[in-house]
Amino acid sequence: MHRRWLVNRTNKEYISYLSKAASISPVLAQILINRGIKTSEEINDFLKPAISKLSDPFDIPGINVAVERILDASKRGERVLVHGDYDVDGLSATAIIFKAITMLGIDCSYFIPHRMEHGYGFNLSSLEEAKQIGAKLIITVDCGITSFDTVSLSKKEGIDVIITDHHEPAISYESSVTSQESGAPPTHPSPSRGEGEGGGDRSQRFLLPDALAIVNPKISNLQSPVSHLSGAGVAFKIVQALAMSASGGSNSPFSINDFLDLAALGTIADVVPITDENRVIVKEGLKLLENGTGPGLMALKSVSGIEKRGLKTGLLLFTIIPRINAAGRISDSRRVVQLLITDSEDEAIEIASWLDKLNSERQEIEEVIYQEALVKLNKKGISPAIVLSSEGWHRGVIGIVASKIAEFFCRPTFIVSTEGEIARGSARSIPSFDIYKGLTHCREFLTDFGGHKQAAGFKLKSEDIVSFEEKMNRIVNESLADKDFVPTLEIDASVNLSDITFNFLRELDMLEPFGFGNPEPRLGSKGLEVLNPRVVGNNHLKMKLKQRSHSLDTIGFDMAEFIDRLEVSTTIDAVFTPFINEWEGGRYLQLNLKAFRPSLR
Q: Rounded CA gap, 596 and 112, in Å?
């Protein structure tokens, strides 16, 4: 698909000033400015994340009450149930809380809902489990912020609930007086989000379950370093607070360093911004994942074939994370928690091998549904919002299919699986459209929904799919301009090939770890001569690019289909990410080609 090229530029005098003030190259200064980092102090904090820079966990509302209740459970000898979720973030968060609570001497169990049997979220099955084992406290992780009924029933049963979550809370457009007089769940002021649906200046307030404590950065009115934590990140902050509180903080039974690998895994998997607190968690967690971690993650690295490789976020997203997710998508993910907490190498290898097989099955199912969805889309044609449905599409993989279609066609995408009268869908969006907000405006058709700005899940009656599609198309059409449907290739800086040296790449390495909010830098260069273009390996495009006296090897992964364009124009403008290719004991500068076009010079 055609993409708009957008080169980010800043006042040259300011770049020169910042480069000197922070002792970095002008190119790195431009890249950091593009990420919203605009002072030498901010640059130092960003380039040198450290555990010592973690924020005080007690700054998060509700965490003090949650920690006190957990420590009370330890003193009273109570049983605790941790309710998790079936994706990598939820499973990592479950393992974090379970390990920490167990190390406090608390008798703890965990419950992971089955996607097909229980659905998403804190539900009645979890409450029944708590009653059966005699738990007096339930701690939810990565869910619960909209579980009003289950929290109320738990309270009636004499079971306290602590909600730890990072998803968007429900919003009430009524005044607090009206809500409280009507007997509705308690409301709390929310950050300004514009006018309510239908216009007007009604106050927006969070509608929250009546839990003993709610630990969710999304219900704070202030932006802070923890505003974009994952579910595992919130669990990590609970553990940090417990470590500070247990035995006065001087004799804690655990170190927060013991949980960084799991916190990093959940953070990377949930595609939250790798900035602020998340950057510290991922940076330090990757070190632990690479240099030594528990048997479970070691076994996953082995079955993924990456036990001897340096670990980066992108590598985990294509190896370990899909294997963990496979259980929740097409099987039962409860065993994954056991994998993450086990001390047995044999058990770890057995479960990791099982996940490896499940992932292969998941890939086959996903490809079938993806091809069927493309056939349906071809018949329907492209609309502002893509809504595709079919009877029996596997609910565990429709989110991946939605993500692929949204990315390729640059449209908010809703993939729906119907089972008779009931339909369940997964939604993925594009940067310019808040898909969660879009679903709130279609709530008359939905029996349930939840999620984020870029990803969500929903449920509705099969007979309402057409009406839902019509309204969602109106919403998207009214919200976006034509340019929003054309993907933008943002270029961090223009460079000459002579700028790309080993020293320059060592400087770029300080930007690691990469991820959402801090992508790999894309650099652009004009007037490049193409030398010896050819197809290599599995559909890759290889060539040399030359600019004056400098030339560099270039590889375009999965770009072999574009080789014909190079026969038309042998001088191109190119967008790339430079890297060091290590091969047979040597180290070579190389360009990872992202896009090219006939030179405009």
A: 46
The full set of domain ranges for the chain reads 4-48+489-598, 57-167+222-354, 170-207, 382-485
Helix (H) or strand (E) holding 542: strand 540-547
pLDDT at res. 570: 79
DSSP classification of residue 256: G
Positions of the chain with pLDDT lower than 70, given as ranges: 1-2, 173-204, 221-222, 247-251, 568-569, 601
Backbone angles phi, psi at 310, to 5 degrees: -65, 135
3-state secondary structure (DSSP) of residue 170: strand
Q: What is the pLDDT of residues 92-124, one digit of tens each?
A: 999 999 999 999 999 999 999 998 888 788 999
For domain 57-167+222-354, the question of CATH label 3.90.1640.30 is answered with yes
The continuous run of DSSP H or E covering 524 comes out as: strand 523-536
pLDDT tens per residue across span 39-48:
999 999 999 9
The sign of the torsion formed by the CA atoms of 123, 127, 132, 133 equals positive
Per-position b or e across 415-448, b if 16+ CB within 10 A of its CB:
bbbbeeeebbbbbbbbeebbbbbbbbebeebbee
Domain 382-485 has CATH 3.10.310.30: yes
Are 398 and 488 spatial neighbours (Cβ–Cβ below 8 Å)?
no
Three-state secondary-structure class, residue 372: helix
Nearest to 495 by CA among 40, 3, 9, 36: 9
Residue 441: alpha-carbon gap to chain centroid: 24
The CATH code that applies to domain 4-48+489-598 is 2.40.50.460
From the list 125, 85, 119, 144, the residue with the least C-alpha distance to 325 is 85
Radius of gyration of the CA atoms of the chain, in A: 25
